[in-house]
């Protein structure tokens, strides 16, 4: 699922670069919990509330867009820094790292909509309990997403070292990342699609 990558990558890479791989992986654990929350809600039918109450979907979506816009501003503002720039930061406690990953993922309501729209297409009632099939399919998606993003976290430290030794690359990367985050925030905020009632 590509829609979750900007949210995940921003949180986990930032923590991996500034506080080490362990911090990035803990944050990714929070992201995994967010996937689990949305998967459980979709399996139980709770995420259909987004279709019935469009204002709630819009509020969560705009909160996510605001967060991405803030990250873009942090990169593009005068005196801004790249997420790959080394910084002397105090280590965040494990609970905070986990919570930041969780909240970042929960601010992406398209994950819930994806589970509601995509998973039922692969469920066959004749093959057993529908809820169990849904959970299994969702677990596969979560495993793939976490594997890919875990590899990104593990590679972030090496990339940070590479960029730190090349200031022009670091500055270029900061503007590219900030611009991309700003563009994603604008797309999310102006996206007019709404979840369809089930």
Main features:
198 residues, mainly alpha
The number of helical segments is 8
**What is the molecular shape?**
globular
* CA gyration radius, whole angstroms: 18 Å
Q: What is the terminal separation in angstroms?
A: 21 Å
Average pLDDT number: 76
Helix/strand-derived class? Answer: mainly alpha
Tell me the major beta sheet.
Answer: none
Total number of strands: 0
Percent range for helical residues? over 70%
Beta percentage is under 5%
- In the predicted model, the low-confidence regions spanning at least 5 consecutive residues are none
The H-and-E topology, N to C, reads as HHHHHHHH
Please, could you describe this protein's structure?
75% of the residues lie in helices and 0% in strands. The protein is mostly helical and 198 residues long. Helix 2 packs antiparallel against helix 7 and helix 4 runs antiparallel to helix 8.
Layout of strands and helices, then pairs:
Layout: H1 5-19, H2 21-44, H3 48-52, H4 54-76, H5 94-106, H6 110-118, H7 130-164, H8 167-190
Short description:
This protein is mainly alpha-helical and 198 residues long. 75% of the residues lie in helices and 0% in strands.
């Amino acid at each position: 699922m590509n829609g979750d990558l900007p949210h995940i990558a921003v949180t986990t890479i930032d923590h991996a670069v500034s506080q080490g791989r362990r911090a990035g992986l803990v944050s990714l654990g929070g992201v995994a919990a967010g996937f689990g929350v949305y998967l459980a809600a979709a399996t139980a039918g709770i995420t259909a509330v987004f279709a019935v109450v469009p204002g709630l979907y819009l509020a969560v979506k705009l909160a996510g867009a605001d967060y991405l816009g803030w990250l873009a501003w942090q990169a593009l503002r005068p005196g801004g820094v790249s997420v790959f720039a080394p910084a002397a930061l105090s280590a965040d406690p494990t609970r905070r790292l986990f919570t930041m990953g969780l909240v970042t993922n929960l601010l992406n309501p398209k994950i819930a909509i994806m589970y509601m729209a995509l998973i039922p297409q692969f469920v066959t009632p004749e093959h057993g309990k529908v809820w169990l099939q849904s959970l299994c399919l969702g677990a596969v998606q979560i495993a793939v997403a976490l594997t890919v993003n875990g590899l990104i976290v593990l590679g972030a430290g090496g990339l940070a070292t590479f960029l730190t030794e090349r200031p022009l690359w670091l500055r270029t990367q900061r503007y590219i990342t900030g611009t991309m985050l700003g563009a994603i925030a604008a797309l999310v905020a102006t996206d007019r699609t709404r979840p369809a009632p089930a």
